[in-house]
Design brief:
Blueprint: H1 3-14, H2 20-27, H3 31-43, E1 47-54, E2 62-70, H4 76-84, E3 89-97, E4 101-107, H5 110-123, E5 128-141, E6 156-158, H6 169-180, H7 186-193, H8 197-209, E7 213-220, H9 222-225, E8 228-236, H10 244-253, E9 257-263, E10 269-275, H11 281-288, E11 291-305
Antiparallel strand pairs: 1-7, 2-4, 2-5, 3-4, 3-11, 5-6, 5-9, 8-10, 8-11, 9-10
Helix pairs in contact: 2-3, 6-8, 7-8
Length: 310
Amino acid sequence: MKAKIKKLIFEYSTHSRITTKELGKKIGSSQQSASYLLNMMKKRNLIENPTTIIDAIKLGYMNILVGLNLINPGLKKEIIEELKKIPTITSIEECKEGIDLLLEYTVPNLSAFNKSHTETISKLYKQLKTEFIYPIIVIHQYNKNYLLRRSKDSDIILFGDRVLREISERENLILNDLVKNPDKKLIDISEDLDIPVKTVIKIKKGLEKKYIIRGYGSIINHKKLGIIRNIMFIRFSSEGIKQIEKFYEYTKNNKNIIRFIKLIGDYQMAIYFESLKEEDIIKEIRSNFPVESYHIIKNEKVHKKRYLPE
């Protein structure tokens, strides 16, 4: 992968609302060149969809990871299309090893999750088998530093601060528009919602200051870009529990780890790691931390990624 493309993917995945002028500066190109390269990558589905990163807990939601296996793998495409339609399923990852599908639900409570997931499985009971369910305690999201020579610090914390934020009707309208259309121009939001553009700008900044909006990312096509994406579920031994905070610091400083999650369930945590070549990160972790058990899932494609239910 060329250096300029690496930089573009890094910058766009870090801030998908970036202007092409600013993007050009970041990657060392003219605005015209940056715009052409970005549009070309979108047309080729190398970069697929932008996302507005929301800390859903501020609005009263929780996230739950669910692993599924297909009873009839031949129907995978049709099943994924059905799952995409379910509003509470905010993330769908197709996997090639370890599990067939990894889902994230965003729901108000466990009762709502149980109802939604039961309805899903009841509808597709001949096609899907639930392998695990893990409520999420906290998520740490990091930059894709494996794309750069010099790492840039980042740690977007989701589900950490459990203080609810009340938002007005206008804030809710603008937030939902940004979630649905992450790269929509503010002037267009203003016209569509019939809210003055200065008010839209003020409300957007206010949602960011309240840490409801945490950033603007993007979905990339890992397979087409030649990026290896794996998810590793980890359980420490009983005496090693006190090292979880040390492990968290390790994840922040490892350029290949782009997400660290604390869980409730058989495994205490999960890491998402990406690389441009095979990395023996498992061996490194097992050599430095008291890993009792682990489970590796190899990603094939991210089909859906939102931070609020539809």
